[in-house]
């Protein structure tokens, strides 16, 4: 019986705080305002919440809100364990397919700057395409079998391809009716409450952004996609943004989606668009 007391109290306290802030942040979930206005509203909201925080600093996530945590981040980045995965990804990237070509042959400028524009909406297939899907499309075009999403090789390749955009601002485009529809579906998923805790992504990463929830500072949604794939000490590994989505769904007691499901792809599309203008830094490092 005692095991149930703590979660119930935490949820009750969280619910009261969220209700108090509902007028301020819940309106950001309006799916009728369009991508450009959504981006403006989110940036304005966080500017009001943290007036001294420059947009670029949101790439630091929770580290931006604590000098002590930031000092730990700087120390960790002297040797980011994620660099091992980065090196693995580079080796795979440079390895030749059976036809003699490499992954670089599939992308403009050998992949430099490509990840900053992903996910993107494909008007031909009428779906959001992620960087992982593009890697498998490259393999298929070169006569190779697809990699499993979430596999070590796939994550390493995503990490390396992401790193080829380091220092470049996220620039995800949402143009055309199909793209807007996918974007708004991603927004709806972000604000949809689910699971035993009845939390949404927004409950944490908007309402509680920059604040403590239980024993950790919650990172704002703005800037999150700029450092994924990222190394997390809690994982002792590098993983993708969608893997983090899966973990969040599990934490609130919801059934997680499969990696690269339509819902997760649309959610990643929405979240990545909110990071437009923030420079990429892959792999990141998080607690």
TrEMBL record:
<keyword id="KW-0813">Transport</keyword>
<keyword id="KW-0349">Heme</keyword>
<feature type="domain" description="Cytochrome c">
    <location>
        <begin position="181"/>
        <end position="287"/>
    </location>
</feature>
<protein>
    <recommendedName>
        <fullName>SoxAX cytochrome complex subunit A</fullName>
        <ecNumber>2.8.5.2</ecNumber>
    </recommendedName>
</protein>
<keyword id="KW-0249">Electron transport</keyword>
<feature type="binding site" description="covalent">
    <location>
        <position position="201"/>
    </location>
    <ligand>
        <name>heme c 2</name>
    </ligand>
</feature>
<dbReference type="GO" id="GO:0020037">
    <property type="term" value="F:heme binding"/>
</dbReference>
<keyword id="KW-0479">Metal-binding</keyword>
<comment type="subunit">
    <text>Heterodimer of SoxA and SoxX.</text>
</comment>
<feature type="active site" description="Cysteine persulfide intermediate">
    <location>
        <position position="248"/>
    </location>
</feature>
<keyword id="KW-0408">Iron</keyword>
<dbReference type="GO" id="GO:0009055">
    <property type="term" value="F:electron transfer activity"/>
</dbReference>
<keyword id="KW-0574">Periplasm</keyword>
<dbReference type="GO" id="GO:0046872">
    <property type="term" value="F:metal ion binding"/>
</dbReference>
<dbReference type="GO" id="GO:0042597">
    <property type="term" value="C:periplasmic space"/>
</dbReference>
<dbReference type="GO" id="GO:0016740">
    <property type="term" value="F:transferase activity"/>
</dbReference>
<feature type="binding site" description="axial binding residue">
    <location>
        <position position="205"/>
    </location>
    <ligand>
        <name>heme c 2</name>
    </ligand>
</feature>
<feature type="binding site" description="covalent">
    <location>
        <position position="106"/>
    </location>
    <ligand>
        <name>heme c 1</name>
    </ligand>
</feature>
<comment type="similarity">
    <text>Belongs to the SoxA family.</text>
</comment>
<feature type="binding site">
    <location>
        <position position="244"/>
    </location>
    <ligand>
        <name>substrate</name>
    </ligand>
</feature>
<dbReference type="InterPro" id="IPR036909">
    <property type="entry name" value="Cyt_c-like_dom_sf"/>
</dbReference>
<dbReference type="InterPro" id="IPR009056">
    <property type="entry name" value="Cyt_c-like_dom"/>
</dbReference>
<feature type="binding site" description="axial binding residue">
    <location>
        <position position="138"/>
    </location>
    <ligand>
        <name>heme c 1</name>
    </ligand>
</feature>
<dbReference type="GO" id="GO:0070069">
    <property type="term" value="C:cytochrome complex"/>
</dbReference>
<dbReference type="GO" id="GO:0019417">
    <property type="term" value="P:sulfur oxidation"/>
</dbReference>
<keyword id="KW-0808">Transferase</keyword>
<feature type="binding site" description="covalent">
    <location>
        <position position="204"/>
    </location>
    <ligand>
        <name>heme c 2</name>
    </ligand>
</feature>
<feature type="signal peptide">
    <location>
        <begin position="1"/>
        <end position="22"/>
    </location>
</feature>
<feature type="binding site" description="axial binding residue">
    <location>
        <position position="248"/>
    </location>
    <ligand>
        <name>heme c 2</name>
    </ligand>
</feature>
<dbReference type="InterPro" id="IPR025710">
    <property type="entry name" value="SoxA"/>
</dbReference>
<dbReference type="GO" id="GO:0016669">
    <property type="term" value="F:oxidoreductase activity, acting on a sulfur group of donors, cytochrome as acceptor"/>
</dbReference>
<keyword id="KW-0732">Signal</keyword>
<dbReference type="Pfam" id="PF21342">
    <property type="entry name" value="SoxA-TsdA_cyt-c"/>
</dbReference>
């Amino acid at each position: 019986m005692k095991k149930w007391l703590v979660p119930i109290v935490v949820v009750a306290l969280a619910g009261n705080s969220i209700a108090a802030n509902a007028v301020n942040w819940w309106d950001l979930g309006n799916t009728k305002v369009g991508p450009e206005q959504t981006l403006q509203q989110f940036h304005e909201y966080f500017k009001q919440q943290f007036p001294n925080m420059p947009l670029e600093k949101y790439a630091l996530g929770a580290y931006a809100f604590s000098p002590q945590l930031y000092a730990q981040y700087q120390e960790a980045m002297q040797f980011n364990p994620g660099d091992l995965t980065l090196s693995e990804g580079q080796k795979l990237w440079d390895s030749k397919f059976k036809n003699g070509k490499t992954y670089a042959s599939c992308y403009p400028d050998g992949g430099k700057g490509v990840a900053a524009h992903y996910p993107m909406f494909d008007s031909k297939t009428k779906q959001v395409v992620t960087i992982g899907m593009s890697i498998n499309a490259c393999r298929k075009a070169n006569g190779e079998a697809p990699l499993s999403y979430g596999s070590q090789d796939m994550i390493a390749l995503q990490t390396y391809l992401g790193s080829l955009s380091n220092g470049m601002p996220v620039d995800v485009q949402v143009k055309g009716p199909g793209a807007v529809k996918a974007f708004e579906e991603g927004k709806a998923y972000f604000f949809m409450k689910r699971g035993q805790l009845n939390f949404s992504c927004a409950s944490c990463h908007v309402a509680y952004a920059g604040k403590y929830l239980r024993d950790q500072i919650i990172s704002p949604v703005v800037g999150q996609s700029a450092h994924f794939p990222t190394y997390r000490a809690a994982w002792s590994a590098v993983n993708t943004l969608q893997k983090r989505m899966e973990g969040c769904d599990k934490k609130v007691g919801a059934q997680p989606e499969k990696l690269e499901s339509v819902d997760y792809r649309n959610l990643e599309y929405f979240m990545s668009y909110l990071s437009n203008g923030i420079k990429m830094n892959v792999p990141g490092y998080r607690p």
